[in-house]
Sequence to fold (1522 residues):
Amino acid sequence: MIYVRILSLSSAGSLRRRCCAADEPTQKFLTAYCVSCHAGAEADGGLDLTQLGSDLSDSRLSDGETFRRWVKIHDRLAAGEMPPKDAEQPSAGEKTAFGKAVAERLIAVERARRLAEAGRVPIRRLTRAEYEYTIRDLLSLDGIMLQASLPEDGSAHNFDKNSEALDISHVNLAKYVEAADAALDMAIATQPTPPERQTHRFSLARHIYHILTNGDAVLLRNGQADDEFPPGSLREHVGAHEHSVLTRNSLRRGVSAGVFRHEDESFKPYFYDFAALYPGKYRVQTSFWSFQWDKGQVLPGRGVEAARLSVVQLQDDGRGGGHPSYILGYYDAPPHGPQRHELTTWFNPKDTLGFNAASLAPVVNYSRPGRAMAFTGPGIACDYMEIEGPIHDVWPPEGHRRLFGDLPLVAFDAAKNQPGVTPPKRKLLRQETQAPNKPDERRGDWTVASLWPTADAERLLASFLPRAFRRPVPDEVRKQYVTLVSERLAAGDCFETALRYAYRAALCSPDFLYHLETPEYFDDHALATRLSYFLWCSQPDDVLGQLADQGKLRPGRALQEQVERLLADPKSQRFVDDFLGQWLNLRKIAANDPDRKLYPEFSAYLQDSMIAESRAFFRELIDKNLDARHLVKSDFAMLNEKLAVHYGLTGVSGSQVRRVALPKDCPRGAFLTQAAVLKVTANGTTTSPVPRGAFVMSRLLGKPPEPPPPNIPAVEPDVQGATTIREQLDKHRSIEACAGCHAKIDPPGFALEAFDVIGGARERYRSIGDGDAAPRGLIDRFVPISFKLGPAVDNSGRLPDGRTFAGINEFQTLLAADAGPLLKNLAEQLCVYATGRPIGFGDRAEIAAIVNRTQAKGGGIRTLIHEVVQSRLFLPVGPMNGPRPASAPANVAQTTPTRAAPLGMIAAVTVAAEKPEAEPRRRQVTLRLWGLTEPARVPDLHSDLAALPEVRVVALDEAKQELTLEYDAARLFPGTPADKPVPEDQLLQQLDNKIRGVSRGLFAVKPTLGDKLAALRREELGVTIQDCVSCRLCVVHAALKCEGVEQASFDRKTQKLVYRRDPAKDCDAAVRESLTKSKVALTTPASDKPADLQGANSAKGSE
Amino acid sequence: MSHDRFSSRVPLSRRTVLRGFGAALALPWLDAMRPARAAAAGRDVPRRMVAIETNMGILPQFFFPEKSGVDYAASPYLERLAAHRKQLTVFSGVSLPGVTGAHAAEKCFLTGTPHPERGGFRNGVSLDQFAAERIGNRTRYASLVTAVSNEGQTLSFTRSGAPIPAEKSAKKLFQKLFVPTKQEEAAANVEALRQGRSMLDFVGDQSKRLGRMLGPADRARLDQYFTSVRELETRLHSAEEWEHKPKPAVDAKAPEDIVDGKEFVRRSELMYDLIKLALQTDSTRLVSLFVDSVSIHNITHHGNRPDVLAELRGYEEGQFDVLGKFLTALGEVKEDGESLLDRTMVLYGTCMGSANSHSNVNLPVLLAGGGFRHGKHLAFDTQNNYPLSNLYLSMLHRLGIETDAFSTSRGTMTGLELA
Fold:
């Protein structure tokens, strides 16, 4: 510490010796070359050496400001930026000596500080992402969503893994308690057998009927427009309800949905027919194809289109829709026939799937005259959607076994075998949404049974705690948890509840929530943990755990093998996503929606493709071990069709991202010119070289610029086409105070002016005010060109070292000339991410060593990851040599049973035999059927009635519209004595309710007319409607609603409504009124009001 | 491909805490305490605060009046609040010292913590939580943290700078405030709370065990955990005490939530209605409301295009209209001969002086109600701004909190006097 008080500067600006003689040269140097500018209130760059605390050990150091300033003084001098060129220069020897002296002191101070803190890496809390992934892996709940319910993490130095930023408060803690409960609820099995694996097949048509009638989608059968449900055209479809119900039958009728319209605020094509009840794995199957619609004709598609599937969490009862929780992926819809897609995904309760015609331009036909019949353009067809699950290969599921091992599940019976014991708390599972899938029949409270609760608790906790805490757990700690269980058992909790209480405590304990990687703890287990959180964002798996247990996880080969294994595992994608999300700020990709007029071609599909590109590119760098020059320049790119077109490249087809060789001189491919990066660094309306330059400097080149001085007004962006940002900036840059920093910040930004807000290449700025008409280029022809071309872009510049570039390509070449800084930057970013600690002044040497070793081995990114892991930064202070902490003796591992709970047999379980079913009391009844509009609807009737187990169709008389049913009175009227006859009106009422319910009101039953039938008067009424089964149904319903109308049907040939009415009741006018109300146009004039109505109708009919 | 998650966060409150312990509980309403309060009238006048931030700026040209003092001519936006002119003070030339970083500043509107855009940024305690720590124990809820948003923003931060998730659903807020808990549920809640507390005791002890093995800096980090445990325990304890007292009955129906982000004006109105009810029933005295107008973000980068400016102005006028309605509603509620508005400070403002340039100076801010001598335009230097944190200190004093400083304050607000 003797170097700490180095120098002190008097307020007068002269230097006064205070400490040891070793400081004298330093003081002399500052006096000679620096103080003339950097002193007093008007000091250059705000650096007043007379005020700068020179005592690096004082408390201000922990704030880092004084320390940072000294680092900066060191760096500016080392970089040759100071003293300025026009000032008196120190000799090379003087400079080196000064730099060395300052550096030594800084390192000493930093080391002292870190020693005082007794650990290079302070303990830190799990981040939200780490927490979620850890719970997923710990309890084998692959898709549980917990992140969103935890408070947002702070972040420091661009990463959220920093100890200092990861605060904890009672808010976090309360949320951890909730999250632990949610996870345990989901993991614990409550039934003796897995939930029934069901398969549901749905039609998209059912969820988009309102846009079918608008012409924003069409029904297709055998590759052509469906003749029973013609496309929305000039003539409106009538009867929304009828359409909504009848489209349910489209699958049975072999009909696919063809969609032209993109998902938007008022159109959410989600599969509301399904809402998961049981969390777990589900298999999803679907089939897509693309087509070209030409005013009623179906032609081959223009190319491969992409449909998006997302998992949607329904809110409340589901009617209000929901938001896509996350995107499952984009799937090809090829032009020549359907392509089947199959995938497995996790559903949480109330999840369903959402569809989107992602690759189509946002076209709406409902406001177009003629609607679908006047539209020519691309569409995406979805044949069906099939969801099967939940899929359980083992029962109870793996997560349950981690908690309760192989203890048998038994029916809880307090009265019989567990008097005085509180049963486990169970939430009644019910379908909260409108979806028809229902939970399995409940079979009582099932729970794990233990004959020796304390011994079982001891055994199970000995298995669970080390896994949860990611290291051996001392016996005394385990005993404390066992005591918790005993206390709860004594208080009357059942075994499950008591053990669960201890598990919840474990999941809220600091042992679970914190990374303990301090020297005291930095043993093999800490290393295994750090490694797996680096590359998997989660806890070590059994292999890593066992290696650590055996002390085999050593630097060198063993560690290298593990890095390879972890990178090869699909879980390493978490690292790619999480790291890029922060390093390149991709988490904020959606922070700014591009201005719709300036960038009409922008879409969610484009944005998701951008992210996919960056992720795939990083993955490719790792997999192929490519060098750091690829950060700024690449001869290949990772593209799908959407991005390729966006970049002006052709020959890439489909939604999947793949490696594409780039033509010579194409600037794309590298992170520097990826659309994701270009979008993240723009504000949606304009670009500015300043933030983009700052981004490149800090994230790619590792030279973060100084923050802007206070009170500097920002540039007011302008999109009127009058000035360019460069012209505006030039004024700013001409101010001397600003020029220094901007000379460094701006050049990368100038080069990137070659790209717009969404990463498209440009030679001229887009403008909304002045400018020339813009050519369409490769923009989808269904996207209106709503912008003009303004002033030309100047993307030339000059680096601070004097080298100049004419444009982006030359700039890339300049940067790529030296891989060193790029590799060093990436090494630093990876180290900060992996260790949760900023790079200290004293770490610079080790970073340099990592870079050197990597370069010696070819400079590949995969090599870099290995070198980072093998470095002193990752493996602090001789980790493997220190003694194990006294509290966790080496023999603990031996007292701990093996990690994987043996998958023993589940004890035989007797399920109470179901009562033999009583002899059904089957009787027959004949009823008048209401709602059978035409023969084509007979299959609908049968399929609806098939869903009613209590009835069976005996006969159907279509002419009389009479239905004979056999019914089971015991099921229709549960609880009534078998021999008691049911009053006829009650029977009718009950059957009517059931049939209305199952047909959603499209069928009903009434008493037969009998003799009255012959006396009814037959009426006909011509109407003008679409030749559509639902529209006809609407017409018939409109008539049936009227008092006096006893029967109605539709004659498709003559386009006439046929109804029979009570001769005593003249309801013809009422029928007309009812039809008009339903927006049905009449062609037969009413005898009593002729001319004007007729005129109106024929006018409408002639359209 | 992208796995963006849409956060749906629930605020932390006593109730959330309880839900975490498998409980949902009833908290009392101050009717039960009213006699006691009436007795203390004059001595303990309830003082309240509602702090509102709209995060995408307010067009300055339509907000700031030109003339300062009492006879300023109302600007177009202030015109919408004309009925309340005597009950509000409008400020210009104010900002939060050092709070920069464009959008990043939105989380500092109530904390005033400088430089949210910098690497090692850590937020500080927000005005409402600072007050809640001191006077929050007087009501059923120490504070209400609310938002009109589809994302996870909040205005409120704990002492350690951790964000407190905001309640975004008016429906859930209503339920929390006014829908009574069943008796057996209450009993189960008490049991759950006790179990929760003893579990916290246990994990608290675990942190002490770990702490013994760590160096001083790490021990400090674990202390933060331990403090959190204790704070949560305290909250559970007071939740238990509230458990048997009934919730207030109000003559209003539970609102239906609006999901559409573009409807933030109507959504704000729903929240204002509930906030009024919460204050009226003395369920809380401190409320923060974050209004996320990100759905108009793209038009805030208006680039001075007239049509876009007009559209933006339409939205913002709507915001002032519903604010005006809220002030009217507060004015109509009487308590001990004063109006609720007389006793409620309503702070309304934004973190950006001009969204177009993302500047964080010259913030449009106004303060209504609370028993100040209002009716003025307090104009400060637009080149060298006056610290808005001084206003926050004045507001804390008005709440009866004795403190010398808050955040970056250098004193109380010049020119703002008690009525």
